[in-house]
Structure formats: C-alpha cells, structure tokens
C-alpha cells in the first residue's frame, strides 16, 4: 500500500519552504507581496493558496493526497489565533492535503513532523 507523503511547510512573510520529508525534495516558493500585510502572514488567501499549491505539487510524489505539517515562522508573537489556525488549515486543504497539522514552536525533524501529523 502506498503511504501518503509527509510534507513540511514553513510559512514566512516572503516565502513558503515546502519539504517532502520522505523524499527530501524541497521547493521554496517566493510569495507575491503585492497583497501582503505587515500584520498577517496570509493577507490574500487565494494568491497564497495558488502559490502553496505550486510548492506542494513540486515535491509531492505519491498517488495519495499528502499529509501536511504547517509551521508559521514569523508574525506569531503571542501565539496563533483561532482565525489564523483555520486559515492555515484551509490553505493547505485547498492545496490538496488530506491531513493537516499546524505547529508553533521550534522547527522539527522528519520524524517529529510525521509524529505531529499522526497526532493531529
């Protein structure tokens, strides 16, 4: 049975860093900053979803929808709000994920990403 890919997405104000934990493939997608906001990582949902879709498609290799671990890296002083959490989940679901986890804290390794996705 083919297992879905585990994909780790780091979200920065100016880019997405998308890594397939299983294959090691990585893609950095520069964000379109024409609709950026100094207060939020995702100010234009549709543009961000299309850009993230591009990154996931570039590293995804399985026939099954991937499991994606979203990790906001900036603009989260005081934690991620319920609204931001929902934006991250819906953003990656729209990019094709079948399972989503959102994390704040230090970056995780491959096994840490897989464990966090399973626990979500």
Features:
120 residues; alpha/beta; globular; 5 strands; 5-stranded mixed sheet; Nucleotidyltransferase, domain 5; 3 helices
- Total DSSP helices: 3
* Quantity of strands, as a count: 5
Oligomer state equals single chain
What structural class should be given to the helix and strand makeup?
Answer: alpha/beta
Binned, the helix content reads: 25-40%
Please name the fourth-level CATH homologous superfamily. Answer: ATPase, nucleotide binding domain
Largest sheet report: 5 strands, mixed
> How would you write the strand order of the largest sheet?
3-2-1-4-5
> Any idea of the CATH class?
Alpha Beta
The pLDDT mean sits at 89
Q: Which CATH-level-2 architecture?
A: 2-Layer Sandwich
Which of globular, elongated, flat, extended, rod-shaped describes the shape?
globular
Q: Give the domain tally.
A: 1
Radius of gyration: 13 Å
Stretches where pLDDT is under 50 for at least 5 consecutive residues are none
What string gives the helices and strands in order? EEEHEHEH
């Amino acid at each position: 049975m083919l297992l879905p890919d585990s994909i780790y997405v780091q979200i920065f104000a100016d880019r997405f860093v998308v890594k397939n934990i299983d294959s090691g493939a990585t893609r950095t997608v520069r964000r379109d900053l024409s609709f950026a906001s100094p207060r939020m990582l995702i100010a234009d949902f549709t543009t961000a979803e299309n850009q993230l879709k591009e990154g996931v498609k570039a590293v995804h290799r399985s026939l099954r929808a991937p499991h994606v671990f979203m990790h906001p890296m900036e603009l989260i002083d005081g934690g991620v709000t319920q609204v931001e959490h929902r934006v991250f989940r819906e953003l990656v679901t729209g990019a094709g994920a079948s399972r989503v986890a959102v994390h704040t804290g230090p970056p995780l390794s491959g096994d840490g990403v897989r464990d966090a996705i399973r626990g979500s």
